[in-house]
Amino acid sequence: MSAGAVARDPVVERIEALKKSREAIILAHNYQIGEIQEVADFVGDSLELSRYAARTSHPVIVFCGVHFMAETAKVLSPDKTVVVPDLRAGCPMSDMITPEEVRALRARHPEAIVVTYVNSSAAVKAESDICCTSANAVAIVNSIPADRPILFIPDRYLGEYVQRQTGRDLLLYSGFCPTHVRIMASDIARERESHPDALVIAHPECPAPVAEAADVVASTSRMASEVRLSDKKTVIVGTELGMIHRLSRENPEKTFIPACQTCDCANMKVNSLERLLWALEDLSPEIRLSDEVIAGARRALDRMLEVS
């Protein structure tokens, strides 16, 4: 090695070599640890990752996120091998509702259109009429005839946000994101006092008082564009802490202040570079779904993609 040269991480080198030999693509959610974001081919939110998975020609997708996201990739690309670094990377919100509960809700509200947030299992999506993400939930609800009741599952806080934006009266399920509910309006007020000229951004999974205290309520993809376009040099970030890595990388001249210092999603952070390497080596753990679930979930996702 020449004088002054910086040694490369051997794990990263092995990942890059295996990615080529496996003809694999690495997709990572905005909340992943920085090291994974740096080796990923594409970093984005649920909607961006879903679209990328659907159009990629790579036969192997390594999905660094939580389990339901990898399932979505498999539904949209059933002929591809979809693997994850760690099956333990689940989603508490997704676990809050089951297919059986969706069927029971349908029985109680037979006229309702079931709109399901993508933060749900493929089996739950298969019981739904149409899916949505935080980026397109308002557009999805607005696309449904005004005379049809809407059952919105599973996130009540995203549902409340959509109600405020659309004026529609939704039938809300009681699910929530344990990370976003920890962000408080008092957190925003405290940071605003310290940084009065800052831009405040918050995710629509946050409770209403937080959303109302923010300047911009947006999905993580829109957060990135809002920050990029803003002339504000300081940004208070009301979402999971992993988002700050992407924002800092794309806007090195700006300062990012987490609204909540402890709002780290432990499930997102289960994944590591070492486990990503092992997934590429073994092409495992692999996401497997029944044809029936894939067909049902695909219908709901395709309807979403048509609208958005």
Structure description:
With 308 residues, the protein is α/β, with parallel strands linked by helices. The protein has 3 domains: 10-89 and 269-288, NadA-like (Rossmann fold), CATH 3.40.50; 93-177 and 293-307, Rossmann fold; 180-264, Rossmann fold (3-Layer(aba) Sandwich). The protein has 15 helices and 12 strands. It has helices at residues 10-22, 34-39, 46-55, 67-76, 92-95, 99-108, 122-125, 137-142, 156-166, 185-194, 208-213, 220-229, 243-250, 273-282, 291-307, and strands spanning 24-29, 42-44, 60-64, 81-83, 113-117, 130-132, 150-153, 171-172, 199-202, 216-217, 234-238, 255-258. The strands form 3 sheets. It has a 4-stranded parallel sheet with strand order 2-1-3-4, sandwiched between helices. A 4-stranded parallel sheet has the order 6-5-7-8. It starts with 9 loop residues before the first helix and ends with a helix. The mean pLDDT is 94.
CATH class identity of the largest domain: Alpha Beta
Which superfamily, in CATH terms, is the homologous superfamily of the largest domain? NadA-like
Strand count, sense and barrel status of the largest sheet are: 4 strands, parallel
* CATH level 3 topology of the largest domain: Rossmann fold
Q: Which residue ranges are poorly predicted, with pLDDT under 50 across at least 5 consecutive positions? A: none
